[in-house]
Amino acid sequence: MSRHLERLLQIDHLLRSSCGQTSISLAQALEVSDRTIRDDLAFLRDRYHAPLEYRKKTGWHYTNLAWRLPSISLSKGELFALTLGARMLEAYAGSAYEQELRSSIERLSERLPEQTWIDLQQLADERIIFRAGAQMVNLNPQIWQQLLEACRTSKRVWIRYYAATRLEESERVIDPYLLHIYRATNPYVIGFCHKRQEIRWFRIDRIQELRLLDETFERKSNFDPKTYLQKIFQHEVGGNPVSVAIWFDASAAPFIRERRWHITQEIEEHPDGSLTLHLTTSGLNDLKRWVLGYGKGAVVKAPTELVELVKAEVEGMRRNYHFLTTKEGVNL
């Protein structure tokens, strides 16, 4: 925002919030000269047709309070969309921009009549509810801001990272390519890991410490973010792409048909209402967890490696439940 526009907004706010404003009092509040204020008032009146009037008893004031400074043109629909965005960020705890967005919306609302803004707030608060469930992260705003800066300036970073799968910390040097919010709540930085010599994903809320390095980097020439994200299944990367076939029974099939799960997917329909989902991807562990979510309604047909992963998981679950049913003194 330019200094001139910022000053006009401040003048507008002061004229609406307090009486008896003179060019001198406005100049003192904004820490500029009386001449500058007089030029700004003339600009408001001549360029924006502000209904300004000066009286000795009341000072500078608007003769029509319904007039609004047209510095920011927003419809009610646009402001309502931003309001919903703020509510969504509130629902997903850990947002690094929650307070900034709410503050911005409140400032933007000053361009609308007060009753209109109250109506929009009430509608967003009482009629539309966002729930994040258990997917809540504790995002460190400083680390988030540093990663944004590193992505913008192509700066290499050092991180101390906690790997939940191994329950251990490690030190990495990475080239951060982009930030990705998966399922609206899981923030990842995607970049080249110098330790593994390949592109890796790092959950940002698991980064314990981060330092910007003086070194810059260049993205690999064959890395296209959109193409890259389309090819993976959910968020697991690594390994060679394989052809996958998963059969879903008639009760699970409608839930598969209603979404596009992968850019390569093809659906083979069967006479009994079941279907087989075909796709080509890597990241078989994510596929395993996803398939298990459909219980007996899904059966992996290929590849053999994924079949064995699911079978091993089911067998492990069977042993756990068998142990509970046979252990003396346990009530199920």
How are the elements arranged and paired?
Blueprint (H helix, E strand, L loop, with lengths): L2 H15 L5 H8 L3 H14 L4 E4 L3 E4 L13 H16 L6 H12 L4 H13 L14 H13 L1 E9 L4 E15 L3 E8 L4 E6 L3 E10 L8 H7 L10 E7 L4 H5 L8 E4 L5 E7 L2 H9 L5 E5 L1 H23 L6
Antiparallel strand pairs: 1-2, 3-4, 3-7, 4-5, 5-6, 8-10, 8-11, 9-10
Question: What tags apply to this protein structure?
Answer:
4 domains, 41% helix, DNA binding, 5-stranded antiparallel beta sheet, alpha+beta, 4-stranded antiparallel beta sheet, 332 residues, WCX_dom, elongated, Arc Repressor Mutant, subunit A, CBASS_pafABC_assoc_protein
**Topology, number of strands:** 11
Order of helices and strands: HHHEEHHHHEEEEEHEHEEHEH
**Averaged pLDDT, please?**
80
What profile does the largest beta sheet have? 5 strands, antiparallel
Under CATH at level 1, the class of the largest domain stands as Mainly Beta
Strand content: 15-25%
Uncertain regions spanning at least 5 consecutive residues: none
Output the strand order for the largest sheet.
Answer: 6-5-4-3-7
TL;DR?
41% of the residues lie in helices and 24% in strands.
What would your notes on this structure say?
The protein has 332 residues and is α+β, with helices and mostly antiparallel strands. It has four domains: 3-62, Arc Repressor Mutant, subunit A; 76-126; 141-223, Roll (SH3 type barrels), CATH 2.30.30; 242-322. It contains eleven helices and eleven strands. It has helices at residues 3-17, 23-30, 34-47, 76-91, 98-109, 114-126, 141-153, 225-231, 253-257, 284-292, 304-326; strands spanning 52-55, 59-62, 155-163, 168-182, 186-193, 198-203, 207-216, 242-248, 266-269, 275-281, 298-302. β5 (186-193) and β6 form a beta hairpin. The longest helix has 23 residues, at 304-326. The radius of gyration is 29 Å and the shape is elongated. InterPro entries: CBASS_pafABC_assoc_protein, PafC-like, WCX_dom, WH-like_DNA-bd_sf, WH_DNA-bd_sf, WYL_dom. Residues 241-317 form the WCX domain. Keywords: DNA-binding. Residues 143-211 form the WYL domain.
